[in-house]
Design brief:
Chain lengths: 306, 441, 313
């Protein structure tokens, strides 16, 4: 079969031109196509956000309000019972969402600010700055971060601000590595060279030429980093050297009520109590992992019109 | 089956001969000894150096042209009835390409194998094929024996493919130089990549720099633009010396020299719209704002034969040729006098190439632009250049008017380079081989 | 490279002593301590000498196996009942290594088999369900896994003890029985990570052009795996294993606390809570050394299996 050959024109090179969709319609379309795991994840994350924001309204009692009945069983007054000194566990769970998640979010944002800016700068500069930063990161990463955090906390003491700064600095090394690696792929592009030839400043090149192109992996990394930070802080609190009482926190709540688990054979509900805050942690990280997994899959080449 | 990029397609963990013979030993066609013996013979027919021992090497220990020949031996080892070549010489230099083509043809003839050769390069196909089939958009356009197809193509599309090769710019009168390079030396670290390079570029003309990869032709562009400051020598532009480093040049000096890249895909930011890409130099150099910018962008789009409908498109919504046009428009937006074109057409299809070259010629005539054209493709040089500079290993081998350089007598390297460029004549490769053998003999 | 890193790490760990706030002597010895005892304590730590000198002394001591003296056991009266850090660490290190090797023994083969098989049958129901499960599992905090296991295997059914209290006299069989739950917890956590990384590494490898080439030339799936993929897979697999064993070292800390297992992790956590810096330093040094050593081994395996480095041009 032969086709009619038409006369060449630059305008006619692309055969199908479609209307550009706005960002919102595009994300709505991809949301509708999202697998059920990702949708489940998004609903959970949204739920946690609501609980964290409206904690004082939702909680029946105060965060550190003590009742004269330690280890009270589950009842209509104390939905999940009370803890070893008589605080309402359900209320503390709700406040815990605010404290534990809030601190983890703050830490992750700080880690991204430090790691992201330094990583970008190293990728563009490529000379002594890159050398110095990359070598120091190598050394920092040679020590397991939980161990390093333990050492630093033993020196500076366990306050919330110390916790945030220490974990953020340790975690920023990984953000630095990723940002530097993905930026290096973009920095070698001719359009960055073209911008440099034009005489654009460093700030413009970072913001307008590079940043939009490295956003997808960074967003995915933000989710994963958050999980990691969240789990690290939970582990430290569980070990008793993270968030300190009386602040309600899921990690330390597990520790405080751990002994209840051996009563499971007499009262299953009591045995479940220490698992509740642990499950709250697990549920959020699972949800985030589901969303990130889908996001990575989507941005690794599969566009919405394919 | 033979594919391009042999470096990626051979297993880095095994010796070459093991990979060459694996499929015939597995299929039980040959014993291990006879397969190895046969592989050595194949290496010999394929003109590989030291055929008895080259098989003991690992893929990273041999050159790209040699690897492609090993891949040929690998494909021939089980004596297939059909061999498929998929752009096997695409990533190779012209002088290497000739050798690889010659050995592929001899092996196909020697073992009387049928072969399908897939390529976008018409001159190569003219050497290799008995019958040519032209495809477009998944449809067959035309099929005919090679000679007939070359001399008398029937379809308009095929004719247009052939005509690109025929494009030739008439020689122009020489004007005063707008750019001169005087005694330029440049280094990458300790390695010296340019040796005493002197080039004059007359105003309003096109100077083409030709050479193979590693000849230093792209380094010249980096020196002129200030990305790689020269270690000695002077770059003179419009009568004044340019500071070597980009950082020391004024905004106006940067504006007057613009650059167009080989890969339009990587030269425009995939996250910016056409309006942003072309508008930025207008705002940056000329201080335009808002409505004025948009109006000027539309003017520029019309200049490159596109229209206002493209303003809000992202690069992924453009074809390869359109992207390259956007790059040209971005360069024009700065209202430059001098444009460096680095292999601007080599990533494009023949027919799109022709469109871009014609556009550049028209813009030169209308705006009085001066071009420095960096290319490895001789037919592009014929199409667009007034003067030619031949480079090899960081040195200028020959330079002068196009008509002079393309006329014999040539220095040795120019002769080798020119003779290695495939021509549309189907007898060209055979003639070349016998000629070179006579000289060698 | 490994030595240089160790050196840098030792400096960091040493500087932890430098960063202590000025009044820590008072804090350790208690409010009742006189200025004299505090000064004597500072002198004993050598805080009156320049940092470089002390670093030299500290490093030589560490190289000779002397990790210093614990802060605990001191009090305001100046009576010193403190113990050598080495004596505290050594028996616990043995316990920790025992627990870690138990976990590794099950985790490594299991995760390699799972990782390779899911990579081969990519996108099958088998692969999807395993990937789902492990994705869920890596999101769980270690103590959550641990308490779930305790709930089912100890509290509700009493299969295993919930406390892994062993001492030097415990018999081998008894020891294995007692560490079953902590080892199982570690195995579950590690397998999820290791399996996902192995799968990713193998898929990455299978996507390379030379594997496609091997398939085109008619090699059977088994042959593709054994002859073409595996020789190139040692380096990534070694990296995965080393990385996860290093992770195991960290996971041990939490798990030991849950099961009250007398290992080095628990010792470190207690020391951090008491701000007993010499003990923290000693434990951190051991953890860091293990971690660096494992990564070094992975690098070496990567080098000896890479033909580019074995047969230079």
């Amino acid at each position: 079969m032969k086709i009619k050959t038409n006369i060449y024109s630059a305008l006619g090179e692309v055969s199908s031109v479609y209307d550009r969709r706005s960002i919102w319609t595009r994300s709505l379309i991809s949301l509708r196509k999202a697998p059920y795991t990702a949708r489940f994840g998004m609903v959970i994350i949204f739920g946690y956000m609501l609980v964290a924001i409206f904690a004082p309204i939702l909680a029946p009692y105060g965060e550190a309000q003590v009742f004269p009945k330690p280890y009270a069983p589950w009842s209509s007054d104390y939905i999940f019972g009370t803890d070893q000194i008589g605080r309402d566990i359900f209320s503390r769970m709700i406040y815990g969402a605010r404290n534990t998640v809030g601190i983890a979010v703050a830490t992750t944002i700080l880690a991204f600010l430090i790691g992201g800016v330094l990583g970008l700068a190293a990728a563009i500069n490529r000379s002594w700055l890159d050398q110095v930063l990359s070598r120091s990161v190598d050394v920092l990463m040679a020590i397991p971060s939980l161990i390093f955090a333990l050492v630093l906390l033993s020196i500076f003491g366990s306050t919330v601000s110390n916790l945030i700064i220490i974990i953020a600095v340790l975690d920023s090394t990984r953000v630095y590595r990723l940002t530097r690696a993905v930026s290096l792929n973009v920095v070698v592009m001719d359009y960055v060279e073209a911008a440099r030839l034009r005489g654009e400043g460093l700030g413009w090149i970072m913001r307008r030429e590079i940043l939009p192109n490295i956003m997808p992996p960074l967003i995915a990394e933000f989710g994963l980093r958050f999980c990691f930070v969240f789990l690290t802080i939970a582990a430290l609190s569980f070990l008793g050297i993270g968030i300190q009482p009386p602040t309600a926190d899921w990690g330390s709540m597990v520790r405080e009520n751990a002994s209840l688990i051996m009563f499971a054979q007499y009262d299953l509900k009591a045995g479940l109590t220490p698992l509740l805050p642990a499950a709250a942690i697990a549920l959020l990280t699972v949800a985030i992992n589901f969303v990130v997994d889908w996001f990575l899959h989507k941005t690794s080449g599969l566009r919405d019109d394919q | 089956m033979l594919l391009n990029q042999p470096r990626l397609r051979l297993n880095p963990a095994h010796r070459l001969i093991v990979q060459t013979t694996a499929s015939s030993i597995r299929a039980g066609i040959k014993s291990r000894e006879s397969a190895y013996e046969d592989a050595k013979q194949l290496y010999d027919v394929l003109n590989l150096p030291d055929p008895d021992h080259i098989g003991d090497r690992y893929p990273h220990q041999v050159s790209g042209g040699q690897l492609q020949r090993v891949m040929t031996a690998m494909a021939m080892s089980p004596r297939p009835d059909l061999l498929v070549f998929d752009e096997p010489t695409t990533a190779l230099d012209v002088t290497t390409q000739v050798e690889v083509l010659a050995s592929m043809r001899s092996i196909v003839e020697e073992f009387n194998t049928a072969a399908i050769y897939i390529t976008h390069d018409l001159a190569v196909v003219a050497q290799m094929a008995d019958v040519i089939k032209v495809l477009r958009y998944g449809y067959e356009v035309e099929e005919a024996p090679t000679r007939q197809m070359l001399s008398a193509p029937e379809q308009a599309y095929t004719k247009s493919l052939w005509s690109v090769r025929a494009l030739e710019k008439p020689q122009q009168a020489v004007q005063a130089s707008v750019l001169s390079l005087k005694g330029i030396e440049a280094r990458y670290g300790a390695e010296k990549v340019l040796h005493n390079v002197n080039i004059e570029v007359p105003k309003g003309s096109t100077v083409a720099i030709v050479g193979e990869s590693g000849s230093g032709k792209s380094t010249i562009a980096r020196v002129i633009t200030g990305l790689l400051p020269q270690t000695s020598g002077i770059v003179q532009f419009a009568g004044e010396d340019l500071p070597p480093a980009l950082a020391n040049r004024s905004k106006d000096q940067k504006r007057r020299i613009q650059m167009i890249y080989q890969m339009a895909d990587t030269a425009i930011n995939p996250r910016q719209t056409v309006r942003e890409i072309i508008g930025r130099p207008l705002e940056f150099y000329l201080g335009m704002r808002g409505g004025t910018t948009t109006k000027r962008v539309v003017d520029l789009l019309e200049m490159i034969e596109l229209d206002a409908g493209f303003l809000e498109r992202l690069p992924e919504e453009l074809s390869g040729g359109q992207k390259q046009r956007i790059c040209i428009a971005r360069a024009l937006a700065a209202e430059p006098e001098f444009i460096i074109c680095d292999e601007v057409t080599s990533a494009l299809d023949q027919i799109v190439q022709e469109g871009i070259l014609k556009l550049l010629l028209r813009l030169q005539k209308e705006l009085g632009l001066t071009y420095l054209f960096i290319t490895h493709d001789i037919s592009t040089v014929k199409a667009i250049a007034d003067q030619v500079v031949v480079m090899n290993k960081g040195e200028v081998v020959e330079q002068g008017l196009k008509t002079d350089v393309f006329q014999p007598p040539h220095p040795d390297y120019t002769a080798l380079l020119l003779s290695s460029v495939p021509e549309m004549d189907p007898d060209w490769l055979s003639n070349l081989i016998s000629k070179r053998q006579m000289v060698a003999g | 490279m490994g030595v240089a890193t160790l050196f840098a790490v030792s400096i960091i760990i040493f500087s932890s002593m430098e960063l202590l706030p000025g009044d820590f002597g008072q804090a350790i010895l208690g409010q009742a301590a006189t200025e004299d005892t505090v000064a004597a304590f500072r002198r004993e730590l050598g805080l009156d000498q320049p940092a470089i000198v002390r670093y030299g002394q500290w490093l030589t001591a560490v190289l000779q196996g002397d990790l210093g003296t614990s802060f605990s056991g001191r009090n305001a009266s100046g009576v010193d009942r403190s113990r050598e850090v080495v004596d505290l660490v050594a028996p616990r290190l043995r316990n920790t290594l025992f627990l870690a090797s138990m976990a590794a023994l099950f985790a490594i083969p299991l995760s390699l088999v799972l990782g390779i098989s899911t990579a081969l049958y990519r996108n099958s129901v088998y692969d999807r369900s395993i990937s789902m499960t492990t994705l869920t599992a890596i999101s769980f905090p270690e103590f959550f896994v641990a308490y779930i296991l305790i709930l089912f295997l100890s509290s509700l059914s009493s299969v295993f003890p919930s406390l892994a209290n062993v001492d030097a006299d415990t018999q081998f069989g008894e020891r294995v029985y007692r560490v079953a739950l902590p080892a199982l917890t570690l195995t579950l956590v590690i397998v999820a990570h290791m399996m996902r990384m192995t799968r990713a590494a193998i898929i990455n490898l299978l996507a390379s052009p030379y594997i496609q080439m091997a398939r085109l030339s008619g090699a059977s799936p088994t042959e593709v795996i054994l002859k073409h993929a595996l020789p190139n897979a040692w380096a990534p697999i070694a990296t995965v294993i080393a990385f996860n064993l290093a992770y195991l070292v960290v996971g041990v800390v939490v798990v030991e606390v849950v099961f009250v297992y007398p290992g080095i992790g628990q010792l470190m956590v207690d020391a951090v809570a008491r701000r007993d810096i010499p003990v923290v330093q000693g434990c951190a040094l051991i953890f860091a050394m293990t971690y660096i050593l494992l990564n070094l081994i992975a690098d070496i395996i990567g080098i000896v299996t890479n033909p580019r480095l074995l047969y230079p041009k």
